[in-house]
Amino acid sequence: MIRKSELLDIEEVEYSEKHLKSLFSKFQKEELGVGLMGGWAVHLLIQKGGKDHIGSRDIDIFFDPEGTKLEKIIKVVEGEGFKPHSTFRWALFIDRLQGKEVSEEESKRMPLHNLFTVYVDVFSSRDVGNPHIFPEPLLAEVSAEHEVVEFDGLEIIIPTPTQMVKLKLKSVLDREEDKQVKDLIDLFALITEFPETLEKIERNAGLRDKFRVTLDRFVTDGAVSKAGANLGVELGVVESILRRI
Predict the structure, then answer these.
(1) Are 8 and 92 within one domain?
(2) 141 and 126 in one domain?
(3) What is the chain's percent helix, strand, coil content, to nearest 5?
(4) Residues 151 and 183 in one domain
C-alpha cells in the first residue's frame, strides 16, 4: 500500500501508480526487457518486506540497449499519452479538478494548483545517442544481477537493494530540495529494511565518501529533518541511520 506523506500528493502518486501498471503491462505484452528503478523500485522492495512506503511521482525505467529496441519503448510510452518534454523527459499533464489528461498547451493556460504532472524518465547503462535517454553506468550491474518482484499480477525487474542504495547515493548529491528529501527518505527505508547492503558497498567507495561529506549540509539545511517528518521518525533516528553510510 501507499503510505501518505507531506512530500507527495497522494492523488499524484496514485495516478503515477496507475500508469506504471499500465506501462509495464504493455511492456510485457510486447515482450520488451524494461526494468523499473527510482522511487517506485524502492517502494516495491520495501513492500516486498511487508511494509508500506510512500511511492513516487515519477516513473523511472531502464533498458539494456543490447537486447531491447528503444523505438519500441518510446512507442509504448507515447501510446500511454506521455509526450516528450524539455530535453530529456516524457510528461503527462492532468487537470486535477476534472480528473483528465490535458495537452501541454492546455496546461499552460491552467492555474498551477489545478494541474499536476507525471513524468517518465528512461535510463540505459550507456549513451545510446538519444538526448531523452539518461546514461547510467551503474545499471551495467543490474544486467548481471537483479530482482524480479510481483506487482498487481505483473513481474517487474528492479535493481537489488544494494544496487538501489548505490543509485540513490549518486542521485541525492545533485538534486533540487524536494528530490533530495525523497532520496533521503528512500535511503533511510532501504538501509533500515536491508542493513546488509552497507556491508556490500566498500566503506571507502567514492559514493559513500561523497555522501558522508554532504550529509552535514543535509542536516543543516533541514533536508534530513523533512525526511524524518515524512517518515514519522525523529530527526535523531534518521540522522543516526544515515550516518551509518
Answers:
(1) yes
(2) yes
(3) 50, 20, 30
(4) no
The whole-number pLDDT of residue 167 equals 95
89 and 11, same domain (yes or no): yes
Same domain, 12 and 110: yes
Please state whether the predicted TM-score (pTM) of the whole model is above 0.90.
Answer: yes
The C-alpha atoms of residue 211 and residue 194 are separated, in whole angstroms, by: 18
What pLDDT is attached to residue 12?
Answer: 93
- Domain holding 194, by residue range, is 160-245
Q: In the chain, how many domains are there?
A: 2
Q: Give the pLDDT of residue 206.
A: 84
The whole-number pLDDT of residue 204 equals 52
Q: Say which DSSP state 111 is in.
A: -
Q: 10-residue block means of pLDDT along the chain (245 residues)? A: 90 95 97 96 95 96 92 96 88 90 85 90 93 92 91 96 95 90 97 92 77 93 96 95 94
Looking at 159, 181, 204, the residue that finishes a domain is 159
Tell me which residue of 138, 122, 127 sits closest to 206, measured CA to CA: 138
Instruction: Identify the pLDDT of residue 203.
Output: 60
Q: Are 63 and 70 in contact (CB under 8 A)?
A: yes
Which residue carries 522492495 as its cell?
A: 45
Cell of 206: 567514492
What DSSP assignment string belongs to 8-48?
A: S-HHHHHHHHHHHHHHHHHHHHTT--EEEEHHHHHHHHHHH
Together in a domain, 17 and 51: yes
Helices 223-231 and 235-242 pack at an angle, to 10 degrees, of: 110
